[in-house]
Design goal:
alpha+beta, 5 domains, about 30% helix, 4-stranded antiparallel beta sheet
């Protein structure tokens, strides 16, 4: 028998201890939850009521555990407890190997052999390495026996979240492609090499971009002197207290849209096409981070001095938008031969381009910038190879004839190769010369 809602209530009032025997559909739970509190108290002692309470308890317990699983690790209540319970014989009072695990400060100070913790990188942390060695190893810690895997995993999570004393915010930048404290280091200094020698060799802290003689130091751990006055970057250890604004936060579960990005087109992403009147710069091969939003590009060209060819990003103020360019190529029309000749040895025959990517969150110019170089030749193609494909045929004759008729040979890519008689111009004599060598198969000889 199937009961309606009204019949169910009547049935319940009449036969409170037998109603469940006749109800085997999902509707019993539906109507069950709609009973007033007093009747709910009555029936929790019945079979279906007890089952419902179990379901509800399991549900709330699961939700609670689910929420806790995404919380950040607390050092005092979770990590220090592990050290207290497992490392007391050697590293709490005795400080074996110079490593004292009795407090957060002592742990972060490391031991005789150096740092025990590398924030944001558990695999490089000496403490983690020691607690994951085989028990047969003389260096396995703790000496009393290996830790449970859940304790090892908790320590790894704590380190990867930044090895913080106090958990950070659960909201932040959740994109690992953004600036990242795990990569904010200066390996040249870490190995003991003086900073001056590093910079003389062109080595700077990671996330530092050198444009001309101006470094843009964007890391969380190093001081950015603005404007740069020639002083060496100073280590500040900003990441030790949690990622800087816009840096990837491994402990964050909610993305707050603050991510800053550093990726910009470098030499490998760019192709150059040289013509007599300029250089086509194409960075369409550049792959920005998948979650990043690009507002535009700022491109500057340097031959001795530097000049923006897309408009200065500082016009109207960087925060007010400045001038941006959203295409991924630009034809830079200028007399590169004259400019390089005027520049001489300092330029070394090279034209330098700096491409700054203006990401939507970028607070200032130079947060994502790379430089690339092109050494234009008087003509990059062999004489007569007017399409620069490495062979000479009718296509070259047609290309030369067309640009001679349009008086544009000096303005098109590879047009310079059409001056087959070397008189500095393009005319019918060049066409005849090219046609003769193509027919004779002697071009390039």
């Amino acid at each position: 028998m199937t009961f309606t809602g009204s019949q169910f209530r009547d049935k319940y009032e009449i036969e409170p201890r037998t109603w469940y025997r006749n109800l085997h559909s999902v509707t019993e739970y539906f109507y069950f939850t709609r009973l007033i509190f007093s009747k709910f108290v009555q029936i929790i002692y019945y079979k279906n009521g007890v089952e419902m309470v179990k379901i509800l308890l399991n549900y709330f317990l699961w939700v609670s555990l689910f929420g806790l699983s995404f919380g950040q690790v607390d050092y005092d209540s979770e990590i220090q407890v592990i050290f207290n319970n497992n490392c007391g014989n050697c590293h709490l009072g005795n400080s074996s190997g110079g490593l004292n695990l009795s407090s957060y400060t002592n742990v972060m100070n490391g031991g005789i052999s150096g740092a025990a913790i590398t924030p944001y990188d558990h695999t490089s942390s000496e403490l983690y390495i020691r607690i994951t060695l085989p028990e047969s190893s003389d260096f396995d810690m703790p000496a009393s026996g290996s830790l449970d895997q859940n304790k090892i995993d908790l320590i790894a999570q704590w380190i990867d979240e930044g090895a913080l004393e106090v958990p950070g915010s659960n909201s932040g930048c959740t994109d690992p492609e953004a600036y990242n404290c795990a990569d904010d280091f200066w390996s040249c200094v870490d190995d003991g090499t003086p900073a001056a020698d590093c910079m003389d060799d062109g080595e700077w802290p990671n996330y530092t971009f050198l444009v001309g003689t101006t470094p843009y130091i964007n890391g969380c751990n190093y001081d950015n002197t603005d404007p740069y006055d020639g002083n060496f970057p100073v280590y500040e250890g900003g990441c030790e207290s949690g990622p800087c604004e816009g840096f990837y936060n491994p402990g964050a579960t909610t993305n707050d849209g603050s991510c800053d990005y550093y990726q910009a087109p470098d030499q490998d992403d760019i192709t150059f096409t040289v013509s007599g009147t300029g250089i086509l710069v194409d960075w369409s091969a550049f792959s920005p981070p998948s979650n990043a939003i690009i507002s535009g590009y700022n491109i500057s060209r340097c031959t001795g001095g530097c000049a923006f060819i897309t408009g200065s990003p500082f016009q109207g103020g960087w925060g007010n938008g400045g001038n941006t360019y959203t295409e991924t190529s630009i034809n830079d029309e200028f007399d590169w031969a004259s400019e390089l000749a005027a520049c001489g040895d300092p330029c070394g025959g090279q034209v330098k381009y700096s491409i700054n990517v203006r990401y939507s969150n970028a607070e200032e110019y130079g947060m994502a910038i790379e430089t690339s170089y092109i050494t234009p030749e008087s003509c990059p193609c062999a004489v007569g190879d007017c399409n620069c494909d490495g062979v000479w045929n009718v296509l070259d004759i047609v290309a030369l004839a067309n640009c001679v008729l349009a008086d544009s040979c000096g303005d098109i890519p590879y047009g310079c190769a059409g001056d087959t008689n070397g008189d500095g111009g393009w005319n019918v004599l060049d066409i005849v010369s090219l046609a003769n060598c193509v027919l004779a198969g002697t071009c390039g000889g």
